[in-house]
Amino acid sequence: MTIPARALLPALVAALAAAAPAGAQTPRPAPTIAAGITAGGVDLSGLTVDRATLALAPLDARAKAPVVVAVAGHRFTLRTRRVKLAFDANRTARRALNASAKPPAAGRTHAVPLAIEFIRTPIRRFVAHVHRRAYLAPRDARVKLTVRHVYRSRGRRGREVPVAKLNRRIEAKLADPRRSRLLKPGRVSVHPAVTTRDVRRRYATVLTISRSTFKLRLFKHLRWVRTYGVAVGQPGHRTPAGLFSIASKQVNPTWNVPHSPWAGELQGQSISGSDPSNPLKARWMGIANGVGIHGTGEDYSIGHAASHGCIRMHVSDVIALYRRVPVGTPVLIR
Question: Residue 10 above 90 pLDDT?
Answer without folding.
Answer: no
